[in-house]
Amino acid sequence: MQRSSRFGVIVMLLLFIGGCTSTRLEERRVSFVDGSLKGDMLLTDFVSVVNSGGLMEVQVTGRNKTSRYRLLEYRVEWFDGSGMQVPSVMTRWATFPAFEKASFSFSAVAPKQGVSDFRILIRKAKK
Amino acid sequence: MKGKNILAALAVAITMSGCATSVQHIDTNNDQGKAVMGLDYRDFQTAAGEAVGSMLQSGALNKRDGGRYVLVVSRVINDTMQRIDTDQLVKKIRIDLLQSGKVVVTTAVGPNGPEDRMAMQTRELRQSEEFNQSTVAGKGRMIAPELSLSGKILQRNIRVSSGTQQVEYYFQLTLTDINTGLAFWEGESFIGKRGSNKSVSW
Questions:
Q1: Residue B15 covered by a domain
Q2: pTM exceeds 0.95 for this model
Q3: What is the DSSP letter of B135?
Q4: How far is CA B79 from the centre of its chain?
Q5: What residue stretch is flagged as signal peptide (chain A) (predicted)?
Q6: Which residues of B touch A124 (CB under 8 A)?
Q7: ipTM for the complex?
Q8: Is CATH 2.60.40.3230 correct for A2-124?
Q9: pLDDT tens digits for B2-19?
Q10: For residues B65-100, b (16+ Cβ closer than 10 Å) or e, as one string?
Q11: Which of A53, A55, A89 sits opposite B92 (nearest CB)?
């Protein structure tokens, strides 16, 4: 009896702890290129859709685990069906805020139809 | 005496070369250069990138029949204290919109007359017997614009303290449906800079 109640408590504890932590998402197309961010930032969600205009849109959501506000920047590189990079003025380092102990997200739209792949780089913004 | 002169010239040359800053190409993909109070290429890139992204995401450029809109670039006013060719902003936007496949830009009309006068001038060849008339542009072939892109770049200088100033730049753009006069899309990019009063923003 005592043994099963202990087991129950452990299970409940594990569930509780699991509920508090964000799930780390592995997405090969999104990477933190700044080594100092590793462990501090977590990728939690990732959505990729083709909108009504036939353009691919992506949204990346993550979490700043630290208690410090960080200004980050991302860069999206787009590729067409044959793997060729599609140049665009939108392929640039764009800043976004990552507030302390909070989720952050940003979205981007492909420069033209026929874009089938992308690569997103994230790093700390320079001051 | 001659030897002394050569030595002096060498010393001067070495000193001067030591003072000169070496010229470097800007790595536009990873520019670590410090921000300047005025507008530089990074600011135009930011404003253009934000405008194109917002236009494409809004769906304002999705034509019902799936075709492409004909766009004319109207007036983009430079209301800053700097001497800016607004094409620095507009050209980047035009290139990306054209490449998006959703827009084609006309150069046959513009706020100050046609951007490229040749479309009209070559029509004067209709009277010339020297030209094969089947190669001369026919009547009623030009396409009138459906959308117009206009805008303004604003600057506000604010004194923060005795030694610090704040310069605010606003890039405002409007996409108007020429047929109805209604704005299909509007966007504003803000770029703010704070720095020494000694820095010049004009």
A1: no
A2: no
A3: G
A4: 14
A5: none
A6: none
A7: 0.81
A8: yes
A9: 667 766 776 666 665 556
A10: eeebbbbbbbebebebeeebebebbbebbbbbbebb
A11: A89
